[in-house]
Specification:
2 copies of one chain form a homodimer. By secondary structure, chain A is mainly α. In chain A, 38% of the residues lie in helices and 9% in strands. Chains A, B: Belongs to the AGR family.
């Protein structure tokens, strides 16, 4: 009898340790998404190398969006950006998208500094489009919630691809 | 009356265009997670640069896991990996974790090639631990579902940090 209880216990322990999902001491977490709230329906590249690869191979411009989760300017711009259907649809159909909270080692992506939020377009020829700027002289690639139409105009500029070597 | 209907229509259009969330023509997508199923409760770095930064600043080893979504070997190993509580708990509490489907430009991360699945440990001193290997001579950093105990042993080795310059 004791042996049977012991066996049952062993099975129970085995089942628990195999199937009981890990939960952190601090409580269950919501899985992080690659979109980070900038457009859950978009297919986001994970890294700059991956974004460049998809941009070249699909002949679509790459939009790189630098932001920080705890930056109120990023949050405010994210709300407008993620809720704008024209932005979302155009990005989904005509762009490769990448959002980063950590800077890359490529200095071309910070032509005038590493502030956030900051949007840099890259042509499929792998040329950073430093000519596509926002409206602030001291942070040329920054956008605020009121600049969403300017961003759409700039997306249009990015879609006019530089001459590619075909 | 016509004016009122027109106004109501305008409001309706405005509300729809503002609040109607973008849905791709091909149908609604499930948002991509940074974990990609390798542990939804872990906090994943997005890029190698980010992983190195957290490894150094928190003095924890970094585990870099290369895989592919459509690779059956990666899938089989992922199932065992994500369901193993000891692996998940140890990674959560003592490691910085990064999973990549696209190779980096750093050749140190592919000491004997770019196959998947492949696990490389990096010390907080930013030294790739090429000495921590699996059991296959031709793919030294590959793991199969049956190798989960060996992976735990190797995680233990990675936790014995190299001498840091304090």
């Amino acid at each position: 009898m004791i042996k049977a209880v012991f066996s049952a216990l062993l099975v129970l322990v085995a089942v628990t340790s195999t199937f009981g999902k890990y939960i952190p001491k601090t409580g269950k977490r919501i899985p992080q998404t690659l979109s980070r709230g900038w457009g859950d329906q978009l297919i986001w590249a994970q890294t700059y190398e991956e974004g460049l690869y998809w941009s070249r191979s699909r002949n679509k411009p790459l939009m790189v969006l630098f932001h920080l989760e705890d930056c109120p300017h990023s949050q405010a711009f994210k709300k407008v950006f993620s809720e704008n259907n024209e932005i979302q649809k155009t990005l989904d159909e005509k762009f490769i998208v990448l959002n980063l909270v950590y800077e890359t080692t490529d200095k071309h992506l910070s032509p005038d500094g590493q502030y956030v939020p900051r949007i840099i377009f890259v042509d499929p020829t792998m040329t950073v489009r430093a000519d596509i700027t926002g409206r602030y002289a001291n942070r040329m690639y920054a956008y605020e919630p009121g600049d969403i139409k300017l961003l759409l105009t700039n997306m249009g500029k990015a879609l006019k691809l530089l001459k590619s070597e075909l």
